[in-house]
């Protein structure tokens, strides 16, 4: 069967693996959706179960996105539009996982994995921005939004400098940046009201 038919489905299903939910169930016998912010991602895992669990969930969520892109590259030429499309579907899988009735995370970590495989230099700029903002403010949501915007701008600038425009990658970037901002709309409201929760790095969290 032609991989252009099944590879996008595989990418979505890979992204749909609810790592945070699985870790909470296996090791803590809890539903992470009923704890903290109710999100299945790394930030809520860190807040509830501690730094080690949070970092583990972060790495595994990133790995989902990276694997979707790297696997797609085994079947399609380097500039093929289906490669970034598979990355997008992995991110959508995390945000709308079929296993959890399409209610998932915000997609930041999985998007990070996708773009680590697609444009590592741009991701580096985004990560530096994220770390600086979080270190200064302790607002992960603000760091995620700023990092996403920096990533989008760096993708555009690097492509202009290289005089080669990958339209599929640009469209993917715009969609992901917008999705991340939209998924953080409640956080943005709380930031504006001064009510957003700050992150605290602890060994055991609140479990």
Structural overview:
This protein has 207 residues and is mainly α. The chain has helices spanning 3-15, 19-28, 42-49, 51-73, 82-95, 108-118, 120-137, 140-162, 167-183, 185-193. The protein has one domain (3-193).
- β-sheet strand percentage: under 5%
Total helix count? Answer: 10
Count of separate structural domains: 1
Helicity, as a percent range: over 70%
**Shape label:** globular
Query: Span between N and C termini?
Result: 46 Å
Could you say which structural class the secondary elements and strand pairing correspond to? mainly alpha
Order of helices and strands: HHHHHHHHHH
Biggest β-sheet: count, sense, barrel? none
């Amino acid at each position: 069967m032609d991989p252009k038919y099944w590879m996008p489905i595989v990418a979505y299903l890979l992204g749909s693996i609810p790592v945070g939910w699985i870790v909470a169930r296996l090791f803590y016998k809890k539903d992470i959706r009923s704890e903290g912010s109710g999100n299945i991602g790394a930030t809520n895992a860190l807040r509830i179960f501690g730094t080690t669990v949070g970092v583990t969930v972060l790495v595994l969520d990133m790995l989902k996105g990276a694997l979707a892109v790297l696997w797609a590259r085994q079947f399609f030429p380097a500039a093929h539009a289906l490669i970034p499309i598979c990355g997008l579907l992995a991110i959508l899988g995390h945000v709308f996982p079929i296993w959890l009735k399409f209610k998932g995370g915000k997609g930041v970590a999985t998007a990070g994995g996708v773009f680590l495989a697609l444009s590592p230099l741009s991701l580096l700029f985004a990560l530096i921005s994220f770390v600086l903002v979080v270190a200064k403010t302790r607002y992960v949501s603000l760091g995620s939004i700023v990092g996403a915007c920096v990533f989008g701008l760096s993708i555009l600038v690097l492509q202009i400098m290289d005089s080669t425009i990958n339209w599929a990658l640009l469209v993917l970037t715009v969609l992901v940046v917008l999705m991340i901002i939209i998924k953080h709309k409640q956080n943005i409201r709380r930031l504006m009201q001064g009510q957003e929760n700050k992150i605290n790095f602890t060994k055991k969290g609140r479990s």
